[in-house]
UniProtKB/TrEMBL annotation, chain A:
A family per Pfam: Sedlin_N
Taxonomic superkingdom: Eukaryota
Coiled-coil intervals: none
GO cellular component, one term: cytoplasm
GO biological process, one term: endoplasmic reticulum to Golgi vesicle-mediated transport
CDD domains: TRAPPC2L
InterPro entries: Longin-like_dom_sf, Sedlin, TRAPPC2L
Protein known as: Trafficking protein particle complex subunit 2-like protein
UniProt record similarity statement: Belongs to the TRAPP small subunits family. Sedlin subfamily.
Automatic annotation (TrEMBL), chain B:
Protein name (record): Trafficking protein particle complex subunit 11 domain-containing protein
Pfam families: Foie-gras_1
Top-level taxonomic group: Eukaryota
InterPro entries xref list: TPC11 (IPR021773)
Native species: Flemingia macrophylla
Trafficking protein particle complex subunit domain: residues covered: 286-555
From TrEMBL, chain C:
Protein name: Trafficking protein particle complex subunit 6B
InterPro entries: NO_sig/Golgi_transp_ligand-bd (IPR024096), TRAPP_component (IPR007194), TRAPPC6/Trs33 (IPR037992)
Family from the record: Belongs to the TRAPP small subunits family. BET3 subfamily.
Record-linked SUPFAM superfamilies: Ligand-binding domain in the NO signalling and Golgi transport (SSF111126)
Length: 143, 1210, 176
């Protein structure tokens, strides 16, 4: 189950962060998302470590912590997408698919002329779309 | 890791036992320990102690055990094999026991028999060591063989040892030859030092024997147990685990790491299988046992993997281990045991990783993207494990607290707990029941066990442990520059400190974290941290911090529900309501109401009496959120004394409206400071009357709305007027001092920019928003002094040109006035040309400021020489004396042109109109003037031959075509040099003299007549007129470069009507010099001279002589021709060739009859010297004669001098 | 799902936008108008680059990003690629479009073929007024390029050069 998704700007500022848990541990998830930025940095700055995944937008599993797994995605515009899930067994393809759809939703959201680049995404449409994508995570890989 | 027993932490070491000759035991032990691999020894003082090794009744060694085993691993098994049960027994006999007395031998034999029986039961190997004490000891071979047979050991396991011998090598050699015991002994050498070697050899022989046997022992033992596993008829799975463990340990004894690893893993997997199966123990304890054994196995596996450098495998293994047991939480009341166990797993693995990464340098984690579950970078960092260990430990703590709170009967727990001890099996506990002398071990129920565990758990201070773990992680991440995770660790750590009451530590860490969250705009996290910080300052009683943190919190961009509700620390839920609460709390505090006297918080925050709190908000302060000031002048420059408008805009992101009592606007010119008072709050403006106070109808600062105030302002002080800060007074105690910002450079407020709110601008005027500045330039007052530059006409090169400068004060007094003079090339180039190689530095300037002469009529040189502060070639500073209103002052600038060049003369006067130095407001007047520089006189010169006398100059002929060659003059002839000076200006000039200055060394080479004669009266040359002067030059030296000298011209401007009055002595003459080019002096081989009468009369014949004189020592053949002329009839040869003898003349004579009157050209003569093949034609000018129509009548003779002059003037 | 928009609409919109800012909002302040128009272009470029770089591996260096602008980005905008790309290898790139679509339908006074760059609008003499009006229209594409590159993490300054019409060169100077 996806417990949290986040969009983080190129200055590592949160643009959108939404948790999907019943339990009220948003703060902890914020911490987890924030910490994951360090892995993104490390992976991007030391490309030789990441080997064949060089320059791919999908960064893969960033790190496992406690009961969560954190996945990352870095767009060409240095915007990071973070996904936190509790699933133990996650298929890479599912995550990739998730991020692809999420990216599309993000692009549509920021293409709104009333959206100012670098500002938090407050669009309700975006939030709805994200929650749809989150709900369908793992069920369909066709997208 | 430290809490593990030593035998588990370190790899097992072979154990050997010694018996007999106890005095040698320490020596042997030390030696064996220093072996590689080391061997531990167990020294038995005498043979009777061997019975220790006697086999006890071992339940599991009886092949088919009657009852299922009570546990998996015995707690002491490993220790036993490492300290009690040797693999090899070394039996030491003194040599003389073999040799001498049969009684000894018998005793020896009985010992041997006893040992044999004991050892066989245990399968222990043994070695016989024969100790040679003295050199006298002789062991016969028979005895040795007998011994061997008796002991039933292989020959190589009987070792002769001489621990302290000896210098007598011979005997040793003999003995060894005799006994034939040890081949190595034969290599003994002849020097004392080598004895060491000999001993060592025998030592190493002993050690290798022992280790060889030990390996054999462990291998056999291992094999024995392995067979049991393979038989597959083992009653319980627990036994398989135990056997696998044992096999692995035996393999470790003999350093067979691969096999050890294999069996540890086998044991581990088997163990994992029995988790759900076994019912041997009550559930909680069963899980505890399994977990502690898996922990041991896992520890062993990880250690082995890491030691062999397989970091990735180790990490993967750990991940599996963690995942396999993560869900085995167990009964709810025992959850804390699970978390404790988990925490320990992470801690231990982290420690292992840390130590191994110290050994194995530079592990480079490579993420295998190919594998389905790739490892991540952090799983290679020990800090990651510490962090999680801390996390699980805190889980444990809360679980434990929960358990404690559920079981209230604490007193009796302690009684039970006292008697609980670890049982013989790993991971099991029993109750010790003492009944008199009898001690019984009773199994525990789960309930009892939990009680015991709880009481144990209470003894530990988990939070300290958590802090230690987090600190490790924090520092480690920090050192790797992984700042966000380290901040998170720091945050958790600070939270622990906070809970522990260590406020100063907590605050320090929270502060450093807050800055990161501020920087990156993680508002919810910042909110949380600030909440803690606020509580810290509340506890510390630092009211300023408290107010600052509170204001920042209240102003954070938290509008919608961020979802952070629970577990948010003292900050409370992050939402608008909470912000308002914080806001109200802080303003109540500073409002001076009563401090924060609530029931829960006996406040140490109080503002009393006159105390006031001033907050500084600079450009980087986080409090910019709470209040921000933007100031814009409406005009970029203002006149002094006139007023302009200034707009002060304030913005606050506090959730509620703030009522400001009074604003103070501060400028760099403190006279301009003013106050804006709130009309609603009438307050006595006490003692601030020296500054202007405006009143605004309302000063309420609404949330996220600019409060714009526009007032007029004026300044008398010229220069920059900048608004420094805006100080808001809120309530009686709080002032907030905001550094002023320009709207043009207004950085958007941090954090809020990221929020989706609409941004507003500080000023409505769109132009001012983009370009408004917080500072303006106050112009200086208009000057009331005239500066006049009175230069007339162009300047002439060479003369000292005077530019009169006049200052007339018209309304201002002039104090500390200063004139700045600057000469600038109009065309932009420099005024001097360093490339010109002129000898004097002054000449390198094309135009030069020479100096200044003071007001007319005064002796300038004395009075004002000191006033000229600085005169450079193109720049000067002149002090101006104090001038009263209406006074005037003047001076003259002396400027000299070296080149004809236009320049721009800039003169600026700076002065202050008041004598008060402090209020020095300088006023500036600028004037500039372009002055042309002109060349006054152009000098020219040319040479003429003597009249009708033309030498043949060969060089001239040759180089006729080439220009730029120096002119040639004939040797020993009088040449005429004509120098002309032309006035190129538009002014009349007076010429004093034209002379040729001959350089000293050139004096003898030539003679110049009329060289330095002065004119009697200075001669006036009108513009365009040319003045000529004639010199006679002759040289008698045949040199190619004759330096003639320099033409020197003395002149000045014509003074016009004043010319008469000016006395010649006082006027300075300008000297213009021009060097004459060098000339070539050569001997002409032929000179042609013409002779004819001074005039002719029409029809009257006359004789025209042409004299060709040969100057050389050679016969010269000359071809000549005389052309026909229309105005003459002539007789004689037209063409001919003549030979002229050396140093002689040939004269041609023609009779000519003029036909026409007037100036007539004589027939043209031309000749060619055959020898030099040089054609020659005399110049036209000298070849004419005036023909009178009839005979004239002259009154007087004409002076030759004038005739020459008139000819030259043509 | 490809949504398209009429080309003439875009042309009209651009013309109207420039006219609006130059003649109405900032009638006497061409610098401010230019800044506003450039800023609009910046946002457009910023958002378009977000969309057009989807499904594409990250660029490793500046050149890759510039090439992206020249090829894919330009194709998306103008249905053609940049015709010529030059660089001095020190952070300056010249992107030349031989027939820049947004200038193609603009009438040019044939007597004026002297150089006029966007940066240089100092002398409003009547004869280069046309060139100046044209350069006003170039702030928008300059802004687009700058916005796209900035969003790709390359801060830069972009100017346009129309010295040889109808070709148009965009000069990108990357800020160190």
């Amino acid at each position: 189950m996806i417990v949290c998704v986040a969009v983080v700007g190129h200055q590592n500022n949160p643009l959108y962060i939404q948790s999907f848990t019943e339990a009220d541990d948003a703060l902890k998830l914020h911490h987890i998302v924030h910490c994951s930025l360090d892995v993104v940095d490390e992976r991007v700055n030391n490309p030789k470590k990441s080997g064949p995944m060089l320059n791919e937008t999908f960064l893969g599993l960033l790190y496992p912590i406690e009961n969560y797994k954190v996945y990352g995605y870095l767009t060409n515009t240095k915007v990071k997408f973070i996904l936190v899930t509790t699933d133990l067994d996650v298929k890479d393809a599912d995550v990739r698919n998730f991020f692809r759809r999420f990216h599309a939703a993000y692009v549509d959201a920021v293409s709104n002329p009333f959206h100012v680049p670098g500002k938090k995404i407050t669009s309700r449409t975006f939030a709805e779309r994200v929650s749809t994508i989150v709900k369908s995570f793992g069920f369909s890989s066709a997208g | 890791m430290e809490e593990y027993p030593e035998e588990l932490r370190t790899p097992p070491v072979t154990l050997a036992s010694l018996v007999g000759c106890p005095e040698l035991h320490p020596l042997i032990s030390t030696h064996l320990l220093s072996e590689q691999p080391p061997i531990n020894t167990l020294a038995l003082p005498d043979f009777s102690k061997i019975s220790l090794f006697n086999k006890k009744v071992d339940p599991d060694s009886t092949a088919t055990s009657p009852s299922p085993s009570l546990g998996i691993l015995k707690r002491d098994w490993l220790l036993k094999h490492r300290t009690k049960l040797p693999s090899v027994l070394a039996v030491l006999f003194p040599a003389h026991h073999l040799a001498a007395d049969p009684a000894y031998w018998l005793q020896l034999c009985s010992h041997l028999d006893f040992i044999k029986t004991v050892v066989r039961g245990r399968n222990i190997k043994f070695v016989i060591v024969v100790v040679i004490q003295t050199n006298a000891d002789e062991i016969s071979e028979d005895r040795m063989i007998a011994l061997r047979k008796r002991a039933e050991v292989d020959a190589k396991h009987v070792v002769v040892l001489n621990p302290n011998d000896t210098s007598e090598l011979k005997q040793t050699l003999h003995r060894h030859a005799h006994c034939g015991l040890h081949s190595l002994f034969f290599s003994a050498l002849f020097k004392g030092t080598c004895f060491e070697f000999l001993t060592v050899v025998s030592w190493s022989r002993l050690a290798s024997s022992i280790s060889e046997l030990a390996v054999a022992y462990y291998r056999e033992e291992g094999r024995r147990i392995k067979q049991r596993i393979e038989k597959k008829n083992i009653s319980s799975v627990e036994l398989i685990v135990r056997y696998c463990f044992k096999v692995a340990v035996y393999a470790e004894f003999r350093s067979d790491w691969t096999e050890a690893l294999k069996f540890y893993e086998e044991a581990y997997h088997t163990l994992r299988e029995i988790v759900g199966v076994t019912t041997r123990l009550p559930a909680v304890q069963r899980l505890v046992e399994i977990k502690s054994i898996s922990e041991q196995l896992h520890f062993k596996i990880s250690t082995l993997l890491l030691h062999s450098g397989k970091v990735t495998e180790a990490v993967t293994w750990f991940r599996q281990h963690k995942n396999a047991y993560k869900r085995l939480v167990g009964a709810p009341e025992g959850i804390f045991l699970h978390w404790e166990w988990m925490s320990r797993q992470f801690l231990v693995f982290g420690e292992l990783l840390e130590t191994s990464s110290k050994i194995i340098q530079g592990i480079s984690p490579i993420i295998q993207a190919t594998s389905s579950k790739p490892l991540t970078e952090w799983e290679y960092y020990s800090a990651y494990y510490y962090q999680l260990a801390a996390h699980y430990l805190s889980e444990k703590r809360s679980a434990l607290e929960l358990t404690i709170s559920m079981s209230e009967t604490s007193n009796e727990i302690d009684n039970v707990a006292d008697s609980v001890v670890p049982s013989v099996y790993v991971g099991q506990f029993t109750r010790l029941l003492e009944q008199g002398d009898k001690v019984d071990m009773l199994p525990l129920t789960d309930e009892e066990y939990i009680r015991y565990a709880v009481s144990e758990g209470k003894r530990f201070q988990d939070s300290l442990e958590i802090i230690v773990l987090l600190k490790k992680a924090y520092e480690s991440f920090n050192s790797m520059k992984i700042q966000r995770v380290s901040s998170f660790c720091g945050f958790q750590m600070a939270r622990e400190y906070f809970a522990e009451g260590d406020i100063s530590n907590a605050k320090q860490i929270f502060d450093s974290i807050a800055s990161l969250y501020r920087k990156e705009g993680w508002v919810t996290l910042l909110w949380n941290v600030l909440g803690y910080l606020r509580e810290c300052s509340r506890k510390n009683g630092t009211i300023k911090d408290f107010v600052e943190y509170s204001l920042e919190m209240a102003a954070l961009p938290i509008s919608a529900d961020t979802g952070v509700q629970r577990d948010s620390g003292p900050a409370g839920p992050a939402n608008l309501r909470q912000r308002e609460i914080v806001h109200n709390e802080v303003f109540e505090l500073v409002g001076g109401a009563s401090g924060l006297e609530t029931n829960e918080h006996p406040s140490n925050l109080n503002i009393t009496g006159d105390e006031s709190l001033q907050l500084e908000v600079d450009l980087v302060s986080p409090l910019r959120l709470a209040m921000l000031a933007s100031v814009a002048f409406h005009e970029q420059t203002i006149k002094p004394g006139t007023s302009t408008l200034i707009t002060v805009s304030l913005l606050s992101h506090l959730p509620l409206t703030v009522e400001i009592d009074q604003l103070e606007i501060q400028f760099n010119q403190s006279k301009c400071n003013f106050f804006i008072a709130n009309a609603k709050k009438t307050q006595s403006s006490n003692g601030i009357q020296q500054h202007r106070t405006e009143t605004a109808p309302s000063l309420s600062l609404e949330s996220k709305k600019w409060l714009r105030l526009t007032h007029d302002i004026q300044s008398d002080q010229s220069g920059k007027l900048e608004c420094l800060s805006v100080i808001a007074k809120i309530g009686s105690h709080l002032t907030i001092c905001c550094r002023a910002d320009s709207p043009a450079s207004l950085d958007s407020v941090p954090l809020w920019t990221l929020d989706g709110c609409v941004q507003t601008v500080p000023i409505k005027d769109p132009i001012l928003v983009l370009s408004g500045q917080k500072s303006t330039q106050v112009e200086e007052p208009d000057p009331q002094v005239d500066l006049h530059l009175g230069a007339s006409g162009p300047a002439l090169v060479g003369e000292i040109f005077l530019v009169p400068v006049t200052l007339v004060s018209k309304g201002h007094d002039v104090y500390s006035g200063e004139l700045k003079i600057n000469l600038v090339d109009v065309k932009g180039g420099g005024l001097f040309s360093p490339r010109d190689s002129e000898p004097y530095a002054t000449d390198s300037h094309h135009v030069q400021l020479l100096g200044i002469s003071g007001p007319e009529g005064e002796d300038d040189s004395q009075l004002y020489s000191d006033k000229i502060k600085k005169i450079q070639q193109s720049f000067g500073l002149i002090s101006v004396p104090i001038l009263k209103n209406g006074d005037s002052w003047s001076c003259k600038l002396e400027i000299k042109w070296h080149r004809p060049k236009p320049i721009m003369l800039y003169v600026s006067l700076g002065y202050t109109p008041y004598c008060n130095e402090l209020n020095a407001q300088s006023v500036h007047v600028h004037k500039h003037l372009q002055i042309e520089g002109q060349t006054a006189i152009v000098l020219n010169h040319y040479y003429l031959m003597p009249f009708r006398r033309d030498p043949l100059l060969l060089s001239k002929n040759k180089q006729a075509s080439e220009f730029g060659q120096s002119e040639s003059l004939p040797l020993n002839q009088k040449n005429v040099l004509i120098v002309s000076a032309k006035n190129c200006t538009e002014l009349p000039l007076r010429l004093k003299s034209v002379s040729i200055e001959v350089e000293d060394d050139a004096e003898k080479t030539c003679s110049i007549q009329h060289g330095s004669e002065e004119l009697l009266n200075p001669c006036l040359i009108v513009p365009g007129e040319e003045f000529k002067k004639i010199f006679l030059v002759s040289s008698n030296m045949n040199i190619s470069k004759l330096k003639l000298g320099t033409v020197c011209l003395r002149w000045r401007r014509d003074l016009g009507v004043e010319e008469q009055s000016a006395s010649t002595s006082t006027l300075s003459w300008v000297v213009t010099k021009q060097k004459l080019p060098d000339v070539n002096v050569e001997l002409p081989p032929l000179i042609v001279s013409f002779e004819c009468p001074p005039y002719a009369i029409v029809g009257d014949p006359f004789t025209y002589y042409i004299r060709i004189s040969n100057q050389t020592q050679l016969l010269q053949e000359v071809k000549y021709s005389l052309a026909d002329a229309q105005s003459f009839v002539l007789s004689g040869y037209h063409d001919d060739t003549v030979h002229v003898l050396p140093k002689s003349e040939h004269i041609l004579s023609y009779k000519l009859v003029p036909l026409v009157s007037g100036m007539q050209q004589l027939p043209k003569f031309s000749m060619t010297s055959v020898r030099y093949s040089a054609a020659y034609q005399p110049s036209n000018s000298s070849n004419s004669v005036f023909v009178f129509p009839s005979k004239p009548h002259f009154k007087a003779a004409v002076s030759t001098n004038n005739r020459v002059e008139s000819v030259a003037n043509e | 799902m490809v949504r398209e928009v009429s080309e003439s609409c875009v042309d009209s919109l651009l013309t109207e936008m420039v006219a609006c800012y130059c003649n109405r909002f900032y009638a006497n302040k061409p610098e401010l108008a230019a800044r506003r128009i450039e800023a609009i272009g910046y946002q457009v470029g910023h958002q378009l680059s977000e969309r057009y770089t989807m499904e594409r591996p990250r660029f490793t260096d500046h050149l890759e990003a510039i090439k992206f602008i020249c090829k894919d980005f330009w194709s998306e905008l103008f249905k053609k690629q940049i015709d010529n790309l030059k660089t001095n290898h020190r952070g300056t790139f010249v992107l030349q479009d031989n027939k820049f679509r947004w200038l193609a339908r603009m009438s040019v006074d044939p007597s004026i073929d002297n150089a006029s760059s966007v940066e240089d609008n100092s002398a409003p003499t009547p004869e280069n007024k046309a060139a100046q009006a044209m350069s006003m229209h170039l702030y928008f594409p300059c802004g687009i390029i700058r916005g796209a590159l900035s969003n790709l993490g390359i801060p830069c300054a972009v100017s346009a050069d129309i010295s040889n019409l109808p070709a148009c060169s965009f000069v990108v100077r990357i800020k160190a």
